[in-house]
Amino acid sequence: MGSYVIKRLVGLVPILFGISVLVFTILHLVPGDPASIMLGTNATPEAIAALRASMGLDQPLITQYLSWLGGLVKGDFGVSVHTGEAILPQILKRFSITLQLTLFAVLIGWSIAIPLGILSAIRVHSKTDIVVRIAALLGISVPNFAVGTLLLLVLSLYFGWFPPIDVVSFWEDPGEALQVFLLPAITMGIVIAAGVLRMTRSAFLETMEKDFIRTAWAKGNSIWTVVFGHALRNSSIPIVTIAGMQIGYLLGGSVIVEQLFSIPGLGQYVLEGIYQRDYPVVQGGVLFVALVFVLVNLLIDIIYTWIDPRIKY
Questions:
Q1: Which residues are CB-contacts of 46 (< 8 A; sequence separation ≥ 6)?
Q2: Dihedral angle at the C-alpha atoms of 22, 25, 28, 31, nearest 10 degrees?
Q3: Which of 265, 271, 286 is nearest to 98 (CA)?
Q4: CA-to-CA distance for 282 and 26, rounded, in angstroms?
């Protein structure tokens, strides 16, 4: 296992290098000049040229890329051309907010999806199964920004409840943090629940047809023993797979939800960088997101070996 993890970590290097080249190239092909945006429409060409020189934007692209890459090797993501702040501390600060939101959303989504998915599989073709399948289909079909907007409108217009604007960490004030993250977590949790529910139902339906499940029933085991003692673990691989992919995407920053609820997470930070043509912010943010996504996938592969001891690396 140790050698496998080391190989996967070493394999991160070419992946991140390719992503860095791709992101750097695409960003510099986008119309718009950061210096012109920062100085405004009334800036003189001389002032724009001076600012571009101070930010290193007048150098050839290959020189700019190598300079940025050299900083990354040393753990330096550079500074924002818009604010002058170091990028890595800002990324870590924003990521901590996105992490809290993601964990809260995952807790809500899984708490709904896994029990309902199991119930739907056990009572296949019943009225309960039909209702659960329709609910899952609606959860997948309705975009999260529509769910979030509806929640905001209903709770504010009809119940007069407005969530706090300032974000507070769970470690500082759990009650205040719960108010801040509740609506965005529900919005994201509904989308999570829909996908996990469908996968849970499908995996359980397949597992419940296996011979060892028939043997467990024939031994006179209770439904709780059959479902949670035999079927759950053997159905977990596809469930963990889709759940891991969802966590990876959410940790990368749910841009729409963070923007809708004014959550200063990683997704909003990168989006602001795109609006402001802040190349270092976008490059560093996307590279960090890629790193997180690959590490989450590595963690899922390791969890596979715990779920099924037959899996060896």
A1: none
A2: -80
A3: 265
A4: 11
> Using an 8 Å Cβ cutoff, are 237 and 308 in contact?
yes
Residue reference for tokens 């709780």 = 224
3-state secondary structure at position 235: coil
Answer whether 139's CB lies under 8 Å from 196's CB: no
Coil, strand or helix: which one is 289?
A: helix
**In contact, 286 and 174? CB cutoff 8 Å:** no
Give residue for tokens 């977590």.
185
pLDDT of the chain, 313 residues: tens digit per residue: 677 778 877 888 888 888 888 888 887 777 766 767 666 667 777 777 787 777 777 788 888 888 888 888 888 888 887 777 889 999 999 999 898 889 899 999 999 999 999 999 888 889 999 999 999 888 888 888 888 888 888 877 777 776 666 777 777 777 778 888 888 888 888 888 988 999 999 999 898 888 888 888 888 888 888 888 888 888 888 888 888 888 877 876 578 888 888 888 888 888 888 887 787 888 888 888 888 888 888 888 888 888 877 777 6
Helix (H) or strand (E) holding 257, with range, is helix 255-260
Contacts of 64 (CB under 8 A, 6+ apart): 24, 56, 57
